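Run log, item B.
One chain of 260 residues. Sequence copied directly from the ordering sheet:
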Amino acid sequence: MTEQLELARVQGLEVHKVILIGGFAASPSLKWFLEKELLKLSKIYGSEIRLLRPETPGTAVASGAVLRALNKEDGPARLIPSSYGFLRTEFYEPQVTPAHRVVRPWYDPLDGNPYVKNTIDWVVKKGELVNAGKVYEPLRMCHTFPAGRNQEFVCKEQLYVSDTSTESSYRKSDEKNKGAELAGEIVVDMTFLRRENLIQVVTPAPGEKGRKHYRVEFDLVITVDGRNLRYVAKYPPGGEGEVLEEGQTCIAAAFLPGTN
């Protein structure tokens, strides 16, 4: 009880009532002890906190469960002690991104540009107060494929979890991402772009590096959906888009006790 009251204070919430329910709620000694503790805390916090014991607790619990199920969007915010992020290939920008300054770039043989492969973009970060239904800024996912009549465009995006990492753009093998583990993945087949003539071959200009290729782009939209992290691939990117594939990973175990 004390821990939950402290968590509420950390989040700027002022509690005035504590409801006691369950089998042990009928215990006079328990009721006496809690009232005594709440009296102490009331003096420390400077505001009264009363102990309530409803006569029909079952009705209150059932009503609350139904209301919560009907409207998950207005659920409580939760502190999360783990980070969740997607594996990326990032354009090499050492002047902009500090993490790129400690590695050498990889040059894509198709478009000839420099990149940093296998970095992790931590979308949900440890210590963040996550609201129910929160939608994060979409991640623009880009993949290059060699030009070919029967070329398939299969894109696999991997979700990682870490109890320590918070800094994005470092490679998965970097010390800052030590302990990061695979938490889920989504596979998106974009071959329909070629079959339906929705994509054109990119041809390097004379003197430019690279060779003929396709460049496939789509948005990955990440949402906190109750106790799950939901990720949806949408095309075309940059707008509402059509949902192509979706996946989800349960993050209930990541929420701090007393915040859900």
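Observations after the first pass:
- The CA atoms of residues 231 and 240 lie 14 Å apart.
- The radius of gyration is 25 Å.
Flagged for discussion on Thursday.
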